[in-house]
Amino acid sequence: MGKLEPLGIKRLEALHYYVRDLERSRHFYVDMMDFAEVWRSSPALDQAGRQRSSVFRAGDVVVVCSQPIGEGGRAWRYLRKHPDGVGSIVFEVEDIERTFKLLEQRGGTPITDIQRFQDDGGTLAMFNITTPFGDTTFRFVQRGGFRALYSGLEEVPATAARGGNRFGFQRIDHVTSNFQTMKPALLWMEHVMGFEPYWEVAFHTSDVDGGASGGSGLKSIVMWEPQSGVKFANNEPMRPFFKASQINVFNEDLRGDGVQHVALEVPEILGAVRGLREQGVSFMPTPKAYYDMLPGRIQHSSIGKIDEDIATLAELGILIDGDAQGKYMLQIFVKEWAALHGDPEAGPFFYEIIQRKGDRGFGAGNFRALFESIERTQRAEGRI
After folding, report:
1. Which residue range forms the structural domain that includes residue 18?
2. pTM (2 d.p.)
3. What is the pLDDT of residues 310-341, one digit of tens each?
4. DSSP state of 346
5. Around Cβ 346, how many Cβ atoms within 10 Å?
């Protein structure tokens, strides 16, 4: 099969998150992450959608959080089945008619026809489709000067707004999802969305302790849309110990396939992580042995040398990896929401903070370090 015509995706515009406690989300994004709350749903939209929503923004990162009001709304239907989680991913496109036509021709399943809205700033058109990402839908929007993220939102007055993005969040780098079996999702992304393979890795952590207590096996394949640069990493469990794999544990905790984490890019990760820790954000632990081995690993790898002090990286728990000569990236992972909030129904989703210093890959070494960290946490909690 030759390359498919691009859908005309311009960017990944927003995440729509369904939550049981909107005030808890507001505290996390505004008080801890220093996002600004920019819009809230109007009373009319609350009543029509049977949910209350707030929109948080830092740089080009936009997150909508919606809490059910009574029964019957989209957030209520999602949360009947799942803990808090990403219910929709929003893409801005160049030509919504063409995007709709291409998706329908390729076997995409629209939930709605194209809906059109207008305000004093301009127009907005959008539609949603189902996906193999569990109960997560994709929304496509075309903007023509429309002021709000979508119709029915009211701007939060500047006098009431808080949050100034002092940690420097710039954009969403990638979205990572977990599947019991990911091949259907990969085929759908290729043949319906027109994405292409970008990167892959497979490993099993049973070699860490000789396999005595199981391990966390996974396969991961990253798909991307070259025109926009939008990237989706996709994971599945790997034998042996399939049921004990932390990918499978995630799926059991979420009660289905879905989005595991979203990576947020920053220009300077050391200051960002230090500030986030001061605001009460907790991160997944990295063992001391990782930093003991890091000088030799850097010296004997294609990275060669780094600008940062290893003692500072160890103090903050930041990971490093690289695939190209002299190019590398730095990253760290916020604790999953269930652990962060002390509530299983807050869900297994988490954020990654990433700074890229020339490297555009995903770093197999860091990828493995993340999964070893998750596995240690799950073992300490008695979940594997």
Report:
1. 9-155
2. 0.92
3. 999 999 999 998 876 778 999 999 999 999 99
4. G
5. 22
